[in-house]
Amino acid sequence: MVQRRIPRPSELAPLLRPAPWIRDRDERRLARAASIHDLRELARRRTPRAVFDYTDGAAEDEIGLRRARDTWASVEFTPSVLQDVSRVETGRDILGRRASMPLALAPTGFTRMMHTEGERAVAAVAAEAGIPYALSTMGTTTIEDMVAAAPDGRHWFQLYLWRDREVAKDLVARAAGAGYDSLLLTVDTPVGGNRRRDVHNGLTIPPALSLRTFADGARHPRWWFDLVTTEPLTFASLTTTGGTPFDMINRVFDPALTMDDVAWLRDVWPGKLVIKGIQTVEDARRVVDAGADAVLLSNHGGRQLDRAPVPAELIEPVVQEVGDRAEVLVDTGILHGGDVVAAVALGARAALVGRAYLYGLMAGGRAGVARSVQILRAEMERTMQLLGVTRVDDLRPHHARLHPHGGRAAGART
After folding, report:
1. Distance, CA of 98 to CA of 94 (rounded, Å)
2. Residue 303 in marked binding region
3. According to its UniProt record, which cofactors does this protein need (predicted)?
C-alpha cells in the first residue's frame, strides 16, 4: 500500500520555481528551439511560402538534397569511453587562420529576402562566433557594407564569373581592397538549375505583389511590412535585376567558364583561392594543379544538377588525392553539429552551412542566426565528448564511417 502524507512547504518550494521569463516573444520562441529542424519550422511559419521554399527547396525532384541528408544521417560513430572529456577544443586553422570551430557560413543569394537584416546580421554573428562568413555575388549587401557591419570578422567573397569579365575584375579588386582573405569561385552554375518550387510559387526577385502573394501576405503581414518599410531589396553586385532566379543566372553568368579562368584568378587574387562546386576527384586534381588552395566539395545544396554526387562521399577519395597540397571543405545537407564532426573525421578541413543559418535568419533575424550557430556548436561539442575526443584535430576516420545501409531513419533532420 502507498502511504500518503501532506508535504511540507519546504518540499514544495523547489517544485514551484517558475522558469525564467523572457519578455520578448521572438526570443522565447528561439530559446525553445532545440535543433535546426525546430528553427526550420519557425521559419516556415514566419515567412511567405515562396520565400521559405526558395531556401528550403532544391532542383528537379530534389533527389540530390535528400541523398546528401540521408548520407549524413547514415554516419556511424565509434566512441571511446573512459576518457577525460571535461573540456573540448573545437578550434582549428582554416585557410591559414584560426577559427573557433571547423565551420563557416556559406554564401547565399537574396539574403535580405529571408529577413531584412540580411547579410549584415549573418556577418555580425559569424564575427562574434569567430568563424568565417562568405558574401555571395548574389548578395543584397555590398562588399564594403558587410565589412562595416562586422569590422572584426573574417570575410570571404564568393564569385560567379560574369559574361562581362570587367565586372568580375572590379568585384575581385574591391574584395581584396576591403580585406577579404579568401575568394570562392563557384563553378557548378553554367546554367541555372530547375527549381520547381520557385516555378510553382511564381517567385521573382524582388517579390511581386501578385494575387497569390497578396493572399499569402495576409498570413505574413510582418514580413511584408519589413519588406516595404526598409531599404529596397536589390542586388548589391548586379546592375540588372528582375525576373526569376533562373532568368538572372542565365542572363548574367558565363557558361563558358574554363580552367583558364581559374589560372587567371590565381594570378590576380592575392589571398586564398577556393574552387566551390567540385564533384569529382579528377576535377579536384585539375583545380589544385592550377593553383587552388582549397576545394569545396559541393553540389550547390542540391540546387543545380539533381542526382549529382553526394559531397560527403567524396571527402575521403579527394583527401587521398589532393589532401597534401590543398585543403578540402564540404557542404550540402549539413544540419547538425554531428555532421560537422563527421566531416572532419572523414578528412575535411571544415564544413560550410547555408540553410542551417538561413532558417535561423527567417525565424528571428540576427538572434535567429546566433541561435543556429549556438545549436551547431553545442551539438558539435557534445558529439566530441560522447566520442571521447577532446580536440577537433584529433578526429580521425576511425571515429566515423558512412554506414552502407543509409540513414533514412533520421527523418527529423530532413
Report:
1. 6
2. yes
3. FMN
By the 10 Å C-beta count (0-12 exposed, 13-18 middle, 19+ buried), 333 is classed as buried
pLDDT in tens, 197-255: 988 888 876 666 565 665 776 788 888 888 889 988 888 876 655 566 666 666 667 78
145: nearest Cα among 153, 51, 330: 153
Round to whole Å and give the CA distance between 75 and 77.
Answer: 6
* Cell numbers found for residue 114: 529571408
Q: Which H or E run includes 103?
A: strand 103-105
54 is in an annotated binding site: yes
Task: Check the annotation: does 98 bind a ligand.
Answer: no
DSSP conformation class of 19: P
Q: What's the distance, Cα to Cα, between the start and end of the chain in Å?
A: 49
Query: E strand or H helix at 286, and its extent?
Result: helix 281-289
Say how far apart CA 152 and CA 154 lie, in whole Å: 7
Flag whether 276 is marked binding.
Answer: yes
The answer to whether the annotation marks 23 as part of a ligand binding site is no
Q: How many residues does the chain have?
A: 414
Taking only the tens place, the pLDDT of each residue in 155-202 is 999 999 877 788 889 999 999 999 999 999 999 998 889 999 988 888
User: Where does residue 254 rank: exposed (0-12), middle (13-18), buried (19+ CB within 10 A)?
Assistant: middle
Residue 412 Cα distances to 40, 357, 403, angstroms? 11, 17, 18
Please give the Cα distance from 23 to 160 (Å, whole number): 43
State the cell numbers at 111: 539574403
Q: CB-side exposure of 384: number of CA atoms within 13 Å?
A: 29
- Buried-exposed string 338-374: b where 16+ CB fall within 10 A, e elsewhere: bbbbbbbbbbbbbbbbbbbbbbbbbbbbbbbbbbbbe
Which domains does the chain carry?
A: 25-413 (3.20.20.70)
Kindly report whether the global pTM for this prediction surpasses the value 0.85.
yes
The catalytic residue positions are 300
Q: Write out the three cell numbers for 279.
A: 564533384
Grid coordinates belonging to 392? 577537433
Whether the CB-CB separation of 72 and 407 falls below 8 Å is answered with yes
